[in-house]
Amino acid sequence: MNIVGISACTAGIAHTYIAKEKLIKTGQELGHNVRIETQGTIGIENELTKQEIEAADLVIIAADIKVSGKERFKGKRIIEIPTHIAIKAPKQLYKKIEMELSASK
Amino acid sequence: MKGDLRLEMKLEEIDITKVITEELIDLNLKATTKMEVIEELTHLLYVNHCIDSEEGFIKDVLYREQEGVTGLEKGIAIPHGKSESVIKTTLAIGRTKQPVEWESLDDNPINIILLFAVKTSDATTVHIKLLQKVATLLADDEVLQSLQEVETKLEVINLLSKNNE
């Protein structure tokens, strides 16, 4: 699957980047193409492009705060979780998503 | 755009020792509780002139603690304070003799603590990018495991300066 997403935590210093790394690494291990935009204390980095969002089968928002630019994902399937889920159990998260997607097909 | 490029280049050149030094590592903390750990590491930041008020910094660290769990897995926690009291954006690292009670993702107690100190007005500097790199490293279970096995301060620095790009 093509997956895009956003990660953001309260302080925007540490958890944002741990969550990003886990989502990408685990996603790749499971054969997905994952791009994560970070919204941290330093601002937005790795901003998702219009093309990437268009090509995405799924959007994962791993955030403990309100993220900006959610309207970009209009019409997309969005999964919203707190960052600790992405950090603690990324594999289970993907498995659950895969299961739900195949069940709804 | 050009500014971004310059930042990237600088990041390559500046090594992690800009934010982590041996003086800011204590592998023999005396603390036996979470609060004592925060106080002891805060004091270390203070005597190394990284913060100008222990009280002010602790207040901001505890504020962040209220917002959510800072314990990761395998005994490692990353409390952090974004604070007016910070003079220099940096990282203090400590290890306790016995694990202390600390909310964590795997419900294990904590014995290694990385306390991030971030200057409020420091939103775009290289130092924050370096802390970000350290955070990214902590996404790797092997790094967490290796942190538990270090014997010297230098090993801590070497481990955290590993290039993860």
Automatic annotation (TrEMBL), chain A:
The UniProt record lists the keyword Transport: yes
Keywords: Kinase, Phosphoprotein, Phosphotransferase system, Sugar transport, Transferase, Transport
UniProt-listed PROSITE patterns: PTS_EIIB_TYPE_2
GO molecular-function terms, A-Z: kinase activity; protein-N(PI)-phosphohistidine-fructose phosphotransferase system transporter activity; protein-phosphocysteine-sugar phosphotransferase activity
Organism: Neobacillus niacini
Transmembrane portions of the chain: none
Recorded superkingdom: Bacteria
Protein name: PTS system fructose-specific IIB component
Any one annotated GO CC term: plasma membrane
Listed Pfam families: PTS_IIB (PF02302)
GO terms classed as biological process: phosphoenolpyruvate-dependent sugar phosphotransferase system
Keyword Endoplasmic reticulum: no
Residue ranges annotated for the PTS EIIB type-2 domain, each copy included: 1-99
